[in-house]
């Protein structure tokens, strides 16, 4: 049964009036010509959001949504990094001609050319760059891109990102220099680059040029992380960056408004992992640390200076405070010190709990956490030390590890995943028993080790939750491992019924359909009819609802006023009129002569039942098919007279025939189905007064074949 | 001023001009001023009502309505007039076609009828529906919000509400949904299709763009979902569907909706949701569920039950991808409101499944690590609730977390943690040990928590008697006072362990008996701090008695009491209490003794106190009978000691109700008299006393028309013979031998008639000064218990030397100062006492030193006693029949006289 949510019908003013069906789900080419040529469009549904406008603004504007394919309009995504991998996030998105770069990261696993995104693939100029957060795999290549490659346009990032990013970049540079690796940019480049950055606030509308609008939403993950909404004309999309759907100690959960979106590009780090309670891992962490220090041991926590370190600081600080522990907690990096100052001032970016208690105490005022001096490595007594880098890949954390590892009372706590090949990874997998110290002497590893995952990325359920909340028309996955991404991709496609892409680096994805909104003035009588309720209750056994039981026929309600108007487009101006006014409008536009409006529809049916009859469905074949149909219809609709006129069936003004004209104007696009069966088209037309009957017959024809 | 404004208003009305804003303002000032005369107000009211009808479409009508509302709320006497006026202007505005205003008036009417209890507005269904269909959105909104107060039929309301859930205006949709949620309570809908339609519409609106609509939809989903579950054929599926739909909402971006969703989840009842679905709401990991979906899918192929299987697999699929781990999400939420709401509904759902409760308690214990006090508190409260219902079983690996809360910095958390610990069940002795040591450590850090910690230790020990005695036996040596070193007796630790050892023998499982008795004597030295901690359980005296007895007696008593005759171990389990109750419940722990030993204790709980006390007293009476037999076999001193022990035992009760206090007093005297009777020597006055008693008994028996017992007859005969025979003592000895004490059982209520007399400021050391020859007013305070107002009393005052006795009649009806609860009256009056000078000379004990006045003497009263004037009332026949001779006599005395 064609109901309120069915797509609109186009009808032309010329005789015979062509009516085409515009399916919502298909992205294939749809006829926009009738509309452009100043024809009629009758539409159903999709008006709800518009009618939220106050009725006083009458005659108000209607926004009519027409799906169409226009080569010049649409979204095109070029993946420069983080395509089927984790690292160097960089996606170039062209929306209706405007080109945006989302993130400009570097890959830490490579030290060659692969480290940076391949900027040579960019064809033409960029309108802006948006950075989601300060992690190096999202911002690492920015100084190179601006100062070396020479991008000179606007760069947007949130305030915390702008504050913390230079710390990260400079620290990275320092470590590289320490290792003797020469980077493609210098400290001067970093500061020059940061000067070009425009900081933005959450939910602040930024107008870039005339057409592009961007807006940042809270993403959790790290301080200042944002999801970015971009809109050009009628096309809009969201690039999530990294995000977290569950709150942690210092950050809240991602928060976004319900938006009408064509595309969501989401990270998929944990495309297949479902994480259970965060409380459990916190408990394990604290118990391990507590047990160790109570026994007089030293705890080494190798971690990167920003992000998780602060999370663990707060966790331990809070625990120390509650349990009244006096054991010192050290952190080793100067970077952390400076970062903590920023964290303290950027309270508005933390979660609600921290904001609530700010009046009493700033959660980042760490009483128990003090900075570390190398001389304290072998000081007696228990302590907890946060040392960078994580994964024990070198630097102080490795140095301390070598000193502490031989003692059984000590503990090494690896708070995150360690990349294969690092000492951290070996330790976590239990394979490390001996280690060579600098002076070639051997160290026995006797200390305990615990590996816990404190991830700030959302898990697969979180990704699905966000996508379902936003319900975009297309989805795209980046920032994940290929096999997992394809599992998630399938899941999204099957559960949400939308197309999902997971392009590799260098891949180009074209989102063919974009949305066009037509602004239309309404006629007074339509506006008036919209104001008064006009609902009707009926009992019908609908299917497709979430819990159709087919056991009872539940009561349903329809309210025509919010769904029905007739759009009249003449000379580029659109007007929505009430259906009672249609005739009047026709007379006006038909230069005074009354015209009959015929609705038409040409629909395909794929059915195995028809295979023998179709293929070369001759005249006799179609006649016999119509005969069968006539018989069936007269059974189904005993109250009307079904006339078989040989070449067509007639019921009142409703006429149905088998359509052989490949370029039939009433024809809608192909319906998806088994391509091995051939399509048979049925063309029909009817007058307005028989509309309900016509729709009923069409649906029963569809069902019976 | 008042007159001026009034006349201006009237003038303006006469001129048929619409009111202007300025006049409205002056009117308002009149209305809000409490000194404005009533007549002015009523004329203002009239003007306003008239203005409503004449004002046309003026925007001022709205202000006029507000003013009328003000009048009704500030002058309740006029609210009816306002109501009537508004009603008439409602109909007039209806007929004038001004529908928006009509619905505005309706809204005011509805609020008035709410506030002042005015009669309901009986609105015609047709008018209501036509008003609803008008274009005005505000009007529609007001109508919907007040619809339930307008007396509209439920079916009409349903149609309107249901239809308007399609309204494009979100607030109208919300109001319609709220209306539907309200309608679910009226139980008028039985059509499954209708209910399902409403449910489905609400489910659709769970995806609405507006927060307020979504949260209203959640309420409708649970209300109508419950109805659908009740009405639908396929209950299992429907119940799960409702639960799952709600679980899918908990990830909403709006806090309000999430809170509402958890509230709704708490309303899910037992049979609605299957256990596996319930369990899955605690975990995001859906392994088990996926299997189930695969099963459901494979059974889709089968013909029978196909649609059912399809539905099941579809619903489960939806649950697996959206709803799984709903509670986990709720408990981890950033917003405290959501966490709170999730905890609240968890509290309700834990009763549905033991497995669910166990997993939920795991989750909650993990939450105890959260960094917000509010969240930790909420988790603890929930755990406390669950522990009260025996649903918390702490695992070893969780102990760390759980014990952490005992050492928390926040005292609210520590308090809540201890509250939880009182009722928690620990599975292993190690857990018990660590709990105790944590509590002790906490005691060191926070000495201010001592009292509460002791109380927790006591409860812990009672709950785990076995563990407690193990722990005590381990640390027993450390508890010995070492006088050479530091005085460890003072440490809180020792006191804490002693508390534990006190609690162990009182354990519910009767397994904590093996406590070295000398510990109790140590405990006596800590009595102050211990009793402070156990204040809610027993008072200091009780504790002291308990400790003394415990330390004297051998510890083997518990075993020597045969199980089939549990004379004393009447340890009542602490009933699982609700949060509200637990604060108000008072506990009494009364140690009791058997043959001088503490056998066990009674923990009486004041709710069912009476029957327990009766039971217990009967036990004592039984014991007394045994002693009587014992006494007859000439072990007099032994029997006496036991009797006096019994006496002490009974006197230790502090009954809460007058009934039990009567029974206690009776038993006490019963024992006392027995003790006397047992040792009384055969004096010369015996014959006279006996005959007096017998005559009293006879008169009593006559009143109760009862036959005298054989013993009474025998005594009578002996008395008659005693007058003649010289060998009377022999006869009496024989008589005493023939007497046997029957088992006396207290069955029904005994009223203890008694009075207390106090002469304020008087005792034998401070005699009352008076002038001989002049009457003196002696202030007396009399408290009467259970004395009816018909009974008349007399007060006799006897001077010190017994030479002067004066009697004063009291009419309780006249002199009562206050009547307390339960037949308790207080009389406070001056009693005149007059004695002639010569008598007083001998009566005075002290002379006022010369120099003041020879004539001033002091009066010492030897004995003041109250006696009833009438002695007609007698004890209940039931009681009389049970009494042996001696007791009857005593009972008679005691019921009437209470000596001070």
Automatic annotation (TrEMBL), chain A:
Coiled coil: none annotated. Residues 87-297 form the Metallo-beta-lactamase domain. The keyword Nucleotide-binding does not apply. GO terms for biological process: snRNA processing. It is found in: Nucleus. Gene3D superfamilies: 3.40.50.10890, Ribonuclease Z/Hydroxyacylglutathione hydrolase-like. Residues 309-427 form the Beta-Casp domain. Belongs to the metallo-beta-lactamase superfamily. RNA-metabolizing metallo-beta-lactamase-like family. INTS11 subfamily. This is Cleavage and polyadenylation specificity factor subunit 3-II. It comes from Linum tenue. The lineage of its organism: Eukaryota, Viridiplantae, Streptophyta, Embryophyta, Tracheophyta.
Automatic annotation (TrEMBL), chain B:
Signal peptide: none annotated. Keywords: Nucleus. Its main location: nucleus. Gene3D superfamilies: Leucine-rich Repeat Variant. InterPro entries: ARM-like, ARM-type_fold, INTS4_C. Residues 757-805 form the Integrator complex subunit 4/Protein SIEL C-terminal Ig-like domain. The keyword Nucleus applies. One of its GO terms (biological process) is intercellular transport. This is Integrator complex subunit 4/Protein SIEL C-terminal Ig-like domain-containing protein.
